[in-house]
Design a protein that fits this description.
The structure is a single chain. This protein is of the alpha+beta class. Strand 1 and strand 2 form a beta hairpin. The longest helix is centred in the N-terminal third of the chain and has 20 residues. It contains three helices and seven strands. 32% of the residues lie in helices and 27% in strands. Helix 2 packs antiparallel against helix 3. Strands 1, 2, 3, 4, 5, 6 and 7 form a seven-stranded antiparallel β-sheet that branches.
Length: 145
């Protein structure tokens, strides 16, 4: 009986520890920005909603959109694969933004009262570790157009 109790207790602790190591997107705020001289995109994802601003100034208001259940499930999966502590150390795959070949993009994640920022990278060509997450977030803004 003690062996069964010990086994169940071990399994219970193992499950709760495993769950704690995964990122919970429900408590996170993800902000993606891309800027160049003539281009501005700001997307904020939080609480299964996205705020999208395309352009600067009052003539380009922010639009709110609800994220579908399928898109949210995909975002949750991509978010759980991201190692937040490695975000500042990710290498940008290309440098087209240095000569106006691409907009300057940046990803910021606020999770459990801590901000995690990436280095700047080219819009449309994010680092491989966050590529799926970034592409999904940008796709949400394109469906809003």
């Amino acid at each position: 009986m003690k062996a069964i109790s010990l086994l169940l207790f071990t399994l219970f602790l193992g499950k709760s520890c495993n769950h704690a190591t995964q990122n919970d997107i429900a408590t996170a705020m993800i902000q993606y920005t891309a800027n160049s001289r003539g281009y501005h995109l700001n997307i904020i994802v939080a609480n299964q909603k996205a705020s999208v601003s395309q352009g600067r100034g009052t003539e380009n208001p922010t639009s709110e959109l609800a994220i579908s259940e399928a898109d949210w499930t995909a975002l949750v999966g991509y978010f759980q694969k991201v190692n937040l502590k490695d975000l500042p150390n990710l290498k940008d795959p290309t440098q087209k933004r240095f000569y106006d070949g691409a907009a300057i993009a940046h990803l910021k994640i606020r999770y459990q009262d801590t901000d995690y920022d990436t280095v700047d990278f080219d819009h449309g060509n994010p680092p491989a570790a966050i590529e799926m997450l970034v592409n999904k977030i940008v796709a949400l803004a394109k469906t809003e157009e």
